[in-house]
Design a protein that fits this description.
Layout lengths: L14 E5 L6 E5 L7 H4 L1 H5 L2 E2 L5 E2 L13 H20 L3 H24 L3 H19 L1 E2 L2 E2 L4 E6 L4 E3 H25 L6 H29 L8 H28 L2
Antiparallel strand pairs: 1-2, 3-4, 5-6, 7-8
Length: 262
């Protein structure tokens, strides 16, 4: 007696097959369809569930934890430092730095809510955390009766008061901010050749843009609280020069890392 063979299904044009590593069979691997916008074409393939070797189901990056395990210490430092400095500034009625703490909280919330999609490197988050601690410490810690932000670290120039703690914080902080801007640009550069001259200009200017935003926030603080000691035109200009030094330092670090991973 002859048995009828089941009909052969037409192959899915949007799928390939790969050999299953632990059972020797074939498994279905979705591919990106060739029609539709590029981002939406691959959404189903990227966000589809995958099976691990033990048979458990793992989701896509968007379904992972909001804060990765290696990032938890960063969050803990913020959860300790922010309330502590808030109480300190409240006790001293330092409303200028209470405003800055509010800005830090806003950016912290922004980073946490976008972390799964952007996947911030933990070392950059530590850099941002160090910047926040340097800034809050500069306004809340006194040495010899002088606030940290008013202390001269290395007397390079007495005319422009170089190098003050304030300028050091700008160099470190906006160096880190420039590195963050580069990380945010990376997805747009994934399929494009790296033209380092053009990219360097964009990355440095992005870091300086964050520095300009900081000066706007400081200006807002002087408008709201005229008694704040932010400084005048020379102080603002030296802050921007310090931002440029930090941005160029971050660019050098980015280039070295790119060459080491080439």
């Amino acid at each position: 007696m002859r048995h009828a063979l089941p009909p052969i299904a037409a192959p899915d044009p949007h799928a390939t097959h790969a050999r299953d590593g632990h059972c020797g069979g074939m498994r279905h691997v979705p591919q990106c369809p060739e029609s539709g916008p590029p981002r939406r074409r691959c959404a189903a393939a990227r966000e589809g569930d995958h099976m691990s070797q033990d048979g458990s189901q793992t989701g896509s990056m968007d379904r992972g934890p909001i804060v990765r395990r290696d990032q938890i210490p960063v969050l803990v430092v913020h959860l300790i430092a922010l309330p502590a400095f808030t109480l300190l500034f409240l006790s001293r009625q330092n409303y200028e730095f209470l405003l800055y703490i509010g800005v830090i909280v806003v950016f912290l919330a922004l980073i946490v809510t976008t972390n799964r999609r952007v996947a911030y490197p933990t070392q950059l988050l530590w850099g941002l955390t160090g910047w926040a601690l340097l800034h809050m410490g500069g306004g809340g810690i006194f040495l010899g009766g002088d606030r940290l932000y008013g202390i001269m670290l290395i007397p390079i120039s007495t005319r422009y008061n170089i190098l003050r703690y304030d300028q050091f914080v700008h160099i470190v902080g906006f160096g880190v901010a420039t590195a963050v801007m580069y990380h945010l640009l990376l997805p747009s550069l994934a399929s494009a050749p790296r033209r380092w001259v053009s990219l360097s200009i964009v990355v440095v200017m992005a870091g300086l843009g964050v520095g300009a935003l900081n000066e706007i926030i400081e200006f807002a603080a002087t408008v709201i609280m005229p008694e704040t000691g932010v400084g005048g035109y020379v102080n603002t200009s030296m802050d921007l020069v310090s931002d440029l030094v930090g941005a160029l330092g971050a660019l050098a670090w980015i280039r070295l890392r790119a060459r080491s991973h080439a």
